[in-house]
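User: I'll paste a sequence; please echo it back and then give the predicted structure.

Assistant: Echoing your sequence first, then the prediction.
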Amino acid sequence: MKKFFKRIRLIFKVKKFLPFLIEFFTSSTVAVKKKIFSVGLILGYFLFPFDLIPDFFTFIGLVDDVGVLLLVFQQIIKMAPDELKDKHELKV
């Protein structure tokens, strides 16, 4: 249940993702393997359109997409160096 609330809090920090991602991919402190893995996660999300709940169910269909995207961002944040997480105030 604790992880669930962490993910909910992460939704409210979405506006911090773009500057964080830009710095994550341009930073020399992040290993190239982590950058490649992160790109793979992001591309995998967009290239594999499999849904647990189809999107034609208006609100409910989007919930699984948001959940998967949050999991991807959560993994990228976990791989980031601590100083980058602290700078953008993102903790997982």
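The chain is about 70% helix and 0% strand. The CA atoms of residues 30 and 81 lie 7 Å apart.
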